[in-house]
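Section: protein folds

Sequence with per-residue C-alpha cells
===
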Amino acid sequence: MDEDFAEFVRAALPGLLRYGHLLTGNPHDAADLVQIVLEKIGSRWGALRTAESPLPYVKRAMANTNISRWRGRRRENLVADIPEPPPFMQPDRLENEPLWQALAALPPRQRTVLVLRYYEGLSEAEIADAMRISRGTVKSQASKALASLRGRLGSLVGAEL
C-alpha cells in the first residue's frame, strides 16, 4: 500500500466515519460506506494524491456511493429463510440523541439532501448535480425533511429549525 494513502486514511478516517454516519443514519452502514469508497480511491491514489486536497473528492464519492446504494435497496429482495439474528452489537453512543434519531428516521433521499446542504455546505445546484435530480426536487426534499425534523424536535428546540 502506498504510504501516502495510508497516512491520508489515518488522518481522515474519523471525519469520514462521522460523515458516513450522517449520510447513512447508522455507524455500521457508515463503516461499510467508508470501506467501499476507500477501496475505490486506493486503486486510483496515484492520480489523486497530486490534488491539493483529495478529501472533497472522497466525500463526493461517499455521497454518490450512498445514493447508488439506497437506490439499489429500494428493490424488494425476497428470501427463502429468515436470517439469523445479529450478534450483540455495542449500542451507538448517539442512539438516544433526539437529533440523530430524527435524522436517521428521514428517508435516505431527504437525509442526503440535508447532509449535503448543511454539513457539506453545497448549493442547491451542486446537490441536484451530485444526486442527479432537479433543483426543485432538492428544494422539496429539503423542505419535507426540515418539516419532519421540526415535527420531531419542535418541543425540544422551539421554532429554531
